[in-house]
Design goal:
Layout (H helix, E strand, L loop, with lengths): L5 H8 L2 E2 L2 H12 L2 E7 L3 H6 L3 E7 L3 E7 L2 H15 L4 E3 L5 E3 L7 E3 L2 E4 L3 E15 L4 H22 L4 E12 L5 H8 L3 E3 L1 H14 L3 H10 L9 E10 L2 E8 L1 H7 E2 L20 H12 L8 E5 L7 E7 L6 E7 L6 E5 L1 H6 L11 E7 L3 H13 L6 H12 L5 H18 L20 H10 L5 E3 L2 E3 L2 H4 L9 H26 L2 H4 L8 H20 L9 H20 L3 H8 L6 H16 L6 H9 L2 H30 L8 H20 L15 H10 L17 H5 L10 H4 L1 H10 L14 H14 L2
Parallel strand pairs: 9-10, 10-11, 14-18, 15-19
Antiparallel strand pairs: 1-5, 2-4, 3-4, 5-8, 6-7, 8-9, 12-13, 12-17, 13-19, 15-18, 16-17, 20-21
Length: 785
């Protein structure tokens, strides 16, 4: 039988339990972040000196309850234990003293942090953690030792739990950064052990939260992907057809089988190895509703869509006949019985809704199955299906752009893909200060994806592009070389350099000004701060190139060195802000708040280092100048007043007392506006006041009247007389095209635009700059010489 004696088996069995009541008590204890004890009153002082504290309202007559936060290593092991319990494992170790033999030598055993067993699998977990994030030391010795012990472990486990269970060793870490290409991870992969970091832990917690009891199926697919459940194939009657160059199969299958074969490529960091991925986590309320619907006799007439990612476990179709006049074939489809062999493209709610249904084994689900589609092709099907169903969230769509557009033949699409990929490097690179701090795909975190994307769009670090045409001066100063026609190579280089440039800047903040990253109302580590800070990096990069401090293709370190003094000025100021100054930042809300933050960041630098004066900052400062705004407002009011006076005068000269009938439609609109204004005044307690309809003209009304009667003159008109046509008065050359009537009236469109941008009290306009005010002065001088 092996090397476990009956005595040893009995000893080991005393270290784990399947008793539901006992497991429940252990679970509650492990779920608690505190260790708890009950002691005599006389012992309290000694325990307090060792870091314990009295539990509130827990003093008994002769004893007292005390508590102490668990050490990080103990807490981590307990949380892994609880996660496996929540997944449905109901045989688990009772404490940390489970030591598993791996040979017949009495001393050859290894302490196992967590062991969890269910009907199909045995999970062994080794936990490694640090109290604070740090780069991990090599685990070569532990992993090499594990590779030598695994066969012995399996023999012991067969003695304890039988021959029919699959065994998986999990190497779990917390706050230990291990590079994706590290030798340790390669060693774990070689011995078919699973690396379980924070990403996986968070993902499984999400599965438990959203999939409830059905989470176990996805968890097993994660651990045992492509491994055979057993060697017997699943044989189903099927039709084989083709669409384009893609073959597909149509058949029906029991939900219980699909649950084991199926896997959902959720857009999470835990599935990075499978990228491009595309699926959303399902909605828990829908899952319960679907189960109830099924159990009440409901059914779904439409097919789920899957892709068999069969790999070495190949599908085999045995055709028996051709059906009628179609090119479809009927036959038997032999499906390998393996975990996670079928990627669910559409229909995960239906499949997982059956997980807790009484019809899980007796119903069958219609299936359309493709075989070995590229993940890009699966993604396209997913997007096409969801185009007309539940919309893909904006954040997930931005995340998916890398996979959708990376190889696009359109430059604007490739730049979208590049922005998406840069953000994911910043979020997923273990050396990044923002590692796991950005919500990507289905992984939620402190910062959202969109402000990073918006900042990369406007910062100038990447060129602006429309279709296949690069536009604006961003081309000259961006970190993307538009002249490199090897698009894939250039995108990879730009992705690396831009991500490293941004990570270097955040690392500088975290190292030199850590409080700015830790503050819950941080002006840097926040969504509005994200947009402002990354946009500022792009602006400073442009300034450094324009001032010839650096050349465009300089290395990342030198690029950051060239802007560091400006960043220091900003950070020094931010760290010294008074509460009132900080509130003035935080109270800025709405769509323009992020740009407002950027301009204020730029102003802080400009005050100290005046050589930094980007045109967009100068423009913004002018638009904040209240004196300039008042001049512009007064000019625009005077121009409108002059236009009204001239227009009414000319209309009365042209048409006499019937002048208003010539502009009947405009008059009716003005009368409606007058009535609305009268009603508004009344409702606001201003009484009943008549409003003249001639006071309700707007600029577009003036333009329409001028255009309609452009060259009209009164009967007996004398060219050199006192009357001037609208063409004589309102054709104003503003230095653009000056041929057609439209060209000659274009100034009115500018006037209307500037009117909407007045920045005086009571408006939300963005204000006028000096150039726009000068324009109004020019128009005023023409109309009122």
């Amino acid at each position: 039988m092996g090397f476990l004696s009956e005595e040893k088996i009995h000893e080991l069995k005393s270290k784990y339990t399947s008793d539901p009541s006992f497991l429940g008590k252990i679970y509650r204890s492990k779920k608690d972040k505190y260790q708890r004890r009950t002691i005599e009153h006389s012992m309290l002082e000694a325990f307090v000196n060792e870091g314990w504290e009295e539990d509130a309202f827990s003093r008994l007559k002769t004893k007292v309850k005390i508590r102490k936060l668990k050490e990080h290593s103990r807490l981590f092991e307990d949380e892994i234990w609880c996660q496996l319990y929540e997944l449905g494992f109901r045989t688990l170790n009772i404490d940390e003293n489970f030591s598993l033999p791996f040979s017949d030598s009495e001393n050859d055993s290894k302490q196992i942090d967590v062991i969890a067993v269910n009907n199909d699998t045995i999970i062994l977990v080794e936990c490694k953690s640090s109290e604070h994030p740090k780069k991990a030391n090599s685990f070569r010795e532990e992993i090499d030792a594990l590779s030598l012990r695994m066969d012995g472990f399996r023999k012991s486990l067969r003695h304890l739990f039988g021959e029919d269970k699959k065994v998986k060793f999990i190497f779990a870490t917390r706050n230990l950064r291990i590079a994706k290409d590290s030798e340790d991870l390669k060693r774990l992969e070689k011995i078919k052990s699973y690396y379980y970091n924070e990403n996986t832990y968070d993902y499984v917690n999400n599965l438990i939260s959203k999939y409830k009891n059905a989470a176990l199926y996805q968890f097993q697919g994660l651990l045992f992907r492509q491994q055979l459940i057993n060697s017997k194939t699943i044989d189903v009657p099927a039709l084989k057809g083709s669409m384009g160059d893609k073959e597909y199969y149509v058949f029906s299958l029991e939900p219980s089988t699909l649950l084991k074969l199926g896997f959902v490529l959720h857009r999470t960091r835990a599935n990075e190895a499978e990228f491009p991925t595309y699926q959303r986590l399902l909605v828990p309320s829908r899952l319960g509703g679907i189960t109830k619907f099924i159990d009440n006799g409901g059914f779904f007439p439409n097919s789920v869509i899957i892709n068999f990612n069969s790999g070495k476990n190949r599908l085999h179709f045995e055709a028996s006949s051709k059906i009628g006049d179609t090119r479809s074939k009927a036959g038997i489809l032999r499906i390998p019985n393996a975990y996670a062999i079928a990627y669910i493209i559409d229909g995960q709610h239906r499949i997982y809704g059956y997980a807790n249904s009484k019809f899980k084994d007796s119903n069958t689900i219609p299936v359309v199955a493709f075989n070995n589609l590229e993940t890009e092709e699966q993604l396209q099907i997913f997007m096409d299906v969801n185009q007309n169903q539940k919309a893909v969230s904006p954040s997930l769509r931005l995340d998916l752009e890398e996979d959708l557009y990376w190889n696009s033949n359109k430059a604007d699409s490739r730049i979208k893909a590049l922005k998406s990929s840069i953000i994911k490097v910043i979020a997923n690179e273990p050396s990044s200060v923002l590692y796991r701090k950005i919500s990507v795909g289905e992984d939620t975190s402190t910062l959202t994806f969109k402000p990073f994307y918006s900042a990369l769009t406007t910062s100038g670090l990447l060129p602006s592009v429309r279709g296949n045409k690069y536009i604006g001066d961003d081309v000259e100063f961006s970190m993307y070389n538009t002249e490199n026609l090897d698009h894939s190579k250039e995108m990879k280089r730009a992705k690396k350099d831009i991500a490293n440039f941004i990570m270097l800047a955040y690392d500088f903040v975290a190292t030199k000004y850590p409080i700015l990253m830790q503050d819950e109302n941080s002006l840097i580590f926040s969504n509005r701060g994200t947009f402002a800070f990354i946009s500022l990096l792009g602006s400073l990069n442009k300034h450094a190139i324009k001032s010839k401090a650096i050349v465009r293709n300089v290395d990342v370190s030198s690029r950051f060195d060239s802007i560091q003094k400006y960043i220091v000025v900003l950070l020094d100021k931010l760290i010294k802000l008074s509460d009132e100054e900080k509130i003035s930042f935080l109270e800025k809300l709405g769509a323009g708040a992020d740009t407002e933050w950027l301009r204020r960041f730029q102003t802080i630098i400009n005050v100290e280092l005046s050589d930094y004066d980007p045109i967009e900052l100068v423009d913004w400062q002018q638009r904040q100048d209240l004196e300039l705004q008042e001049i512009g407002r007064r000019l625009a009011v005077d121009i409108e007043s002059t236009m009204k006076k001239i227009i009414l005068s000319n209309l009365k000269t042209l048409f006499g007392q019937n002048w208003d009938l010539e502009i009947g439609s405009i008059k009716r609109d003005c009368i409606n506006r007058a009535e609305e204004s009268k009603e508004k005044n009344y409702k606001e307690g201003l009484g009943i006041q008549d409003v003249e309809w001639t006071d309700m003209f707007d600029i577009n009304d003036y333009k329409s009247i001028i255009s309609k009667f452009w060259s009209k003159s009164p009967e007996g008109y004398i060219a050199d007389g006192d009357f001037k046509t609208f063409a004589n008065i309102f054709a104003i050359d503003i230095g653009e095209e000056f041929n057609s009537k439209s060209d000659k009236l274009k100034w009115i469109s500018y006037l209307n635009k500037y009117r909407n941008e007045w920045a005086h009290e009571g408006t939300k306009g963005r204000g006028l700059n000096k150039k726009e005010v000068d324009f109004l002065k020019y128009i005023s001088s023409i109309l009122t010489p």
